[in-house]
Write a structure and sequence with these properties.
Blueprint (H helix, E strand, L loop, with lengths): L1 H25 L10 H11 L14 H8 L10 E5 L14 H9 L4 E6 L2 H9 L6 E5 L5 H11 L3 E6 L8 H12 L3 E9 L9 E2 L2 E2 L11 H13 L5 H4 L12 E7 L2 E6 L21
Parallel strand pairs: 1-2, 1-4, 2-3, 4-5
Antiparallel strand pairs: 5-9, 6-7, 8-9
Helix pairs in contact: 2-3, 6-7
Bound molecules: S-adenosylmethionine.
S-adenosylmethionine binds next to strand 1, helix 4 and strand 2.
Length: 292
């Protein structure tokens, strides 16, 4: 105990000094006050790429990618990442340079990267131009269960990260995100994450002055509503969930969800860290043994 106290007293000033140094550095970019060093690094590196992804321009996704994905650069294994949506309809790709693989290749050079895309011709064109070197691809409609099952087979094995930045077609957004999550979530490894971008689109009833409905589930499968329901079940465990087992909630949370993080226009769903004896596999959110 004495040893522990004297160690803590010795290390505390050093940790404080390190924090102060970090706080000074993190405000060296006017207008920005980053929450952690990974967020800042992700932002600066992604912003420096040409062309720049809308992940750090139109959106502020550096917060979730910096926090939950970029630290994989320290993984002891080869991280496996799947992104749905190559960016064929974006003004920066694929004519210029296909952006998402470029971001992940630069920021996580050792990762195994998969891109899923609806537009097979665009994928072929990008490959012919040499823009997909080292990138594995699958093609088809992410709203189609048969296609999703084929993707799962072709990819084979577990993934550390799945990113849904795919279909934004009107009248399809929520079912596309929902179907993809249902089939692909089991592929996420313990401790991995499933990222859903652009959740706001599932609520669009008009866009750019035009009357456009992106909702196709008659209000029953709006992904933002599902996630809100999941959060309620997570934060009321064990007091409520123990008794209800998810009954009374419209959308039962998958048992192996460990956390939900949401930010502007996007959420990250985290998978249970590990299955160990003594953990409570029947209850979401329970990662470790001995925590009751
Ligand atoms: C917003 S863009 C992706 C942007 C890209 N991830 C980036 O960061 O620059 C959406 C992409 O999803 C693709 N897409 C649209 N509908 C799809 C579907 N049903 N299944 C799979 N991909 C789809 C589009 O062709 C387009 O390439």
């Amino acid at each position: 105990m004495k040893l522990f106290i004297s160690l803590a007293l010795t290390l505390a000033p050093r940790a404080t000094a390190r924090l102060a140094r970090y706080a000074r550095n993190s405000t060296s970019h006017p207008g920005r006050c980053d929450r952690n060093v990974f967020e800042r690094e992700f932002y600066l590196l992604a912003k420096g790429l040409e062309p720049t992804s809308d992940k750090v321009t139109a959106h502020s996704y550096e917060t979730m990618y910096g926090t939950f994905v970029y630290p994989l650069k320290f993984a002891a294994h080869t991280p496996r990442i799947l992104e749905i949506g190559l960016g064929c309809n974006m003004d920066y790709g694929p004519g210029a340079s296909v952006v998402p693989p470029q971001i992940w290749r630069q920021l996580l050079p050792y990762a195994e990267l998969w891109e899923a895309e609806y537009d097979a011709a665009c994928v072929e064109k990008a490959r012919a131009k040499g823009q997909l070197e080292g990138i594995k691809t699958v093609t088809g409609d992410q709203g189609d269960f048969a296609v999703l099952k084929r993707w799962a087979e072709e990819i084979g094995g577990e993934l550390d990260v799945i990113i849904d930045d795919g279909g934004h077609r009107c009248g399809h957004k929520n079912s596309q995100i929902g179907h993809s999550f249902d089939v692909l979530w089991p592929l996420v490894r313990n401790g991995g994450v499933y990222v859903i971008e652009d959740l706001q689109v599932g609520r669009f009833k008009s866009y750019g002055g035009e009357k456009i409905n992106y909702e196709d589930t008659k209000g029953r499968g709006v992904m933002a509503d599902k996630i809100k329901d999941w959060i309620e079940q997570l934060v009321t465990i064990p007091r409520v969930f123990k008794h209800t087992k998810g009954r009374g909630f419209e959308h039962k949370i998958p048992d192996d969800v460990s956390f939900v993080y949401c930010q502007l226009e996007a959420c990250v769903i985290g998978k249970r860290n590990r299955h160990v004896e003594g953990s409570r596999p029947g209850l979401p959110g329970h990662d470790f043994p001995g925590r009751r």
